[in-house]
Amino acid sequence: MKTARQSLYQRFAEQIKTSVQNGVLRPGDRLSSVRQASQQHGLSITTVVRAYELLESSGLVESHPQSGYFVRAQFAATALPVSPAEPGRSMPLPVSAEVDVSRHVLATLKSIHQYDAIPLGSPYPDPSLFPARRISQYNGAILRSGGPLGVLDDLPPGHPDLIRQIVRRHLETGLVVSPDDVVVTVGATEAINLCLQAVAKAGDTIAVESPTFYAMLHAIERLGMRAIEVPTDPRLGMDVAALSTIMQSQPVAACMVMPNFQNPLGFEMPEDSKRQLVELGARYNMPIIENGVCNELYFGTAHPSVLKAYDKRGMVLYCSSFSKSLTSAYRIGWTLPGRYRAQVEKLKFLNTLSTSTLPQRAIAAYLMAGGYDRHLRRVRRTLQQRCDIMSAFVGRFFPAGTRITRPGGGYVLWIELPPAIDSMALYRQALAEGITIAPGRLFSTSDAYRSFIRLNYSYSWTPHIEQALRRLGEMLAAMLD
Q1: What keywords tag this UniProt record (predicted)?
Q2: What is the DSSP string of 368-429?
């Protein structure tokens, strides 16, 4: 329906939607190419592209690289079911524990690439969301142009072109930093490891969320430290008051958190809680390692704030990467280590000498050319749509008593299954049928999440993924009989 407020691209998108509803365009039909539609309807190419992107974000059509846009086949006339309720707040015991999760995680990650398994357990977003071809073109152009690409050409802190783009991005999202604040790393994993090594030693206790992303636990395990899990709410994040109580009774060397779109819970920590956490760290002289890898994947209208923005003493060591927002193939990350910068740069040199020059330059060239924000807007719309779809179908296929999170961003769902379910048993049974999931055991030092799983919703919705969810539901029903 045409209204005075609708723009040209919205009107054109509405015409296509009506054609689908009337059966003129059917599931699987290919839309006119952008150029053809522009000529047929007297619209600019930009207007047509925006209309197609709007239809794609609403789930009505999908794009196939090199082929064009097609009417989606899955949801032409199907109403989505209502999602189940959310899990409750975690209540871990306030005791530190040795960490031993690497064996489980390694086995799970290996299984994702075996037997063409359905990647519901993958720790990375769908690679097809990323502009891999364009970045590869910059990569090739740099190689053809010649110039230095050796290990010694980009000693810490990293390539100046990339550092400038990282600083510029932070300025655009509200965090004032200097090029002198940045150390480039081999992904966020190295950044987290270097920062933890800079602020704590073997035997120290590190506070983490419960559940927490297993990369945090890996870093603690690797350095011979202990973890203490802090109660965490699926909507509000780490309970700062509970952490304060823990710190009054035992020493905590550092805190590792993921305040925005945490993996696996997906929450965005409220502003007051972020400020209170930073103030607590300053009061006890406790460094805070902030994992910001999913900050760009928000579903709201504004970029989330970071703990680093409240840091007046250099106690927050911010870590991030391009692996979740641009490309997971190049493993390029960075850290803003505050007062610990000199130590982190030294450790970077001692650990890996430098970060590969070519991927740094290729990503810097992509960012300098523009288009990153447009890419991110499309990724966010797609992820939010796929989150809604998977949430709804978990509600349809999984048994009564299942509860799932409502992420504010990111690409994973945390699912609480009925208490009788052993998620490791479900993991093994699913893997035997070519389906991967991430069992709850990976996200804690204890067995507190025995009946939980994490699912990745970033992949394009296909009959195979729908059937995988249906089959998981059947396995769960059999386990409850």
Answers
A1: Aminotransferase, DNA-binding, Pyridoxal phosphate, Transcription, Transcription regulation, Transferase
A2: HHS-HHHHHHHHHHHHHHHHHHHHHHHHHHSPTT-EE---SBSSEEEEEPPTT--HHHHHHH
pTM: 0.82
Q: CA 20, CA 18: separation in Å to the nearest integer? A: 5
Measured from the Cβ of residue 460, the count of other Cβ atoms closer than 10 Å reads 14
Q: Are strands 403-404 and 316-321 parallel, antiparallel or unpaired?
A: unpaired
Q: Which residue has the tokens 């990375």?
A: 124
Query: CA 359, CA 356: separation in Å to the nearest integer?
Result: 6
pLDDT of residue 397 exceeding 90, the answer is yes
**What pLDDT shows up at residue 144?**
84
Domains of the chain: 8-71 (1.10.10.10), 97-128+375-480 (3.90.1150.10), 130-372 (3.40.640.10)
In the predicted model, what is the mean pLDDT of the chain? 89
**Per-residue model confidence as pLDDT tens digits over 141-164:** 988 887 666 555 578 999 999 999
Q: Do residues 126 and 460 touch, judged by C-beta distance below 8 A?
A: yes
Please enumerate in sequence order all residues whose Cβ is within 8 A of that of 237, keeping only pairs 6 or more positions apart, or say none.
209, 257, 259, 262, 265, 267, 268, 269, 270, 273
Residue linked to tokens 């992949």: 459
